[in-house]
Amino acid sequence: MKSNVLLLGPGPCNPSQKVMESLSEPTLGHMDSEFINLVEETKTNLRSVFRTQNRVTFPISGTGSAGMEFLLVNFIEPGDKIVVAVNGVFGGRVANLAKRMGAEVIEVVQDWGRAMDNEAFIDVIKREEPKITAIVNAETSTGVYQSMEGIGEAVHEVGGLLMIDCVTSLAGMPVEIDRWGVDMAFSGTQKCLSVPPGLSPVTLSERAIEVFKSRKSPVPSFYLDLEQLLMYVDGSGGRSYHHTPPVNMIYGLHASLIEILDEGLEARWQRHATAAAYLIEEMTPFGFTPFVPEAERLNPLTTLSFPEGFKDAEMRQKIRSDHNIEVGAGLGPMAGKIWRIGLMGNNAAPSSVDQLVEALKKTLS
Ligand SMILES: Cc1ncc(COP(=O)(O)O)c(C=O)c1O
Choosing a second label site near 35 at 20 to 30 A (CA), which of 124, 144, 170, 293? Predict the structure, then answer.
């Protein structure tokens, strides 16, 4: 039996009881009509959570990184130009993958802990006229939420496609695929969707599908090939087999989406905002200070700088071993400088903060 840990790191978070129960329901065959109906309901509910009418909206079998790779491998051909916003680990990862795929990558760099300056970013898009513009909506390495103002319009003005990473924002903060003019987006189940890790919901606009159809070279991946995947997931090949989807994981996502839509997206965003504000209020007396300016904070994942002389690793270990609570360390260049505290999905509640504060008090004394 595994320890029952309160997961307040950068994800995964703790799924609800209902989601955990759904995972252990009897496994069905992936061609079974009962399962196909469940996949269709999952797609419909994902559209609501992504705030999109996009026909092509479904979960990729794999974690968030698989969703990132799926989008890039289907839309990049060698020599294509991509502009990538880099203000943390995950923007850097998009740039890295795009280079591996032979793209001409233009990185627009911003200080870690700050959002991209939209006007300056838009100037680059207009100057470079890339095929793809990629930006991280929720940078989990720094705790920054990116405003999308004006970006979709600029991307479409130059005839390109807008790609976003909303792994840590989907179902925790506003993600407005259609309103923002996003053409391709990917997320992950283990954050605010409150399902264990293992699926990456994606959505693609009709504009993106048209660009995909004009590819000159074959997609250099079989597992992630959009056309092949659609034969099963969209029924465009009469539901022909491509790979065996992780059936029980889809039960989990299906159950969670119902809970999310029952709660209401706006109410859920507000719950995440309230929990994050309460966390900052409660951590301030210990000498922690927010790493990100207020207007740019990612509510599901708060980053806090330490007080003087704070023993980062030792404190995290003690809180885990003595109180069964996980908090996240800094990632990449932020290692040893900040804590990343996730209040995601079901954990976005004052009771999570109270438990952490109590554990911190006891550990410090
Ligand atoms: C913003 C962001 N993008 C991509 C990923 C990659 O997702 P995964 O670790 O599920 O592969 C993560 C994971 O934390 C993330 O936070």
Answer: 170
Q: Which regions of the chain are under pLDDT 50?
A: none
Instruction: Ligand 1, residue 136: give the atom nearest the CA.
Output: 1
Question: What is the per-residue pLDDT for 238?
Answer: 82
Cβ 92 under 6 angstroms from ligand 1:
no
Question: Is there a single domain that holds both residue 285 and residue 233?
Answer: no
* Number of structural domains in the chain: 2
Which residue, 201, 232, 261, sits at the end of a domain?
261
Last residue of a domain, which of 231, 261, 291?
Answer: 261
pLDDT at 100: 98
What pLDDT, on the 0 to 100 scale, is given for residue 365?
87
Protein residue whose Cα sits closest to atom 13 of ligand 1: 64
**Structural domain boundaries enclosing 24:** 17-261
Residue 191 lies in a domain: yes
CATH value at residue 340: 3.90.1150.10
Helix 64-75 and helix 89-100: axis angle, to 10°? 40
In this structure, the answer to whether residues 255 and 282 fall within a common structural domain is: no
Name the burial class of residue 279, with classes exposed (0-12), middle (13-18) and buried (19+) by CB atoms within 10 angstroms of its CB. buried
- Pairing state of beta strands 132-136 and 81-86? parallel
Q: Which residue type does 332 have?
A: G
Closest CA to 43 of 233, 220, 221, 225: 233
Q: Are both 179 and 302 inside the same structural domain?
A: no
168 lines ligand 1 (CB under 6 A): yes
Contact in structure between 346 and 172 (CB atoms under 8 Å): no
Pocket-testing residue among 135, 139, 168, ligand 1, by greatest number of atoms within 8 A of Cβ: 168
Q: Whose CA is nearest to atom 7 of ligand 1?
A: 64
Verify whether ligand 1 is closer than 6 Å to residue 171 (CB atom).
no
CA distance linking residue 216 with residue 232, whole number of Å: 23
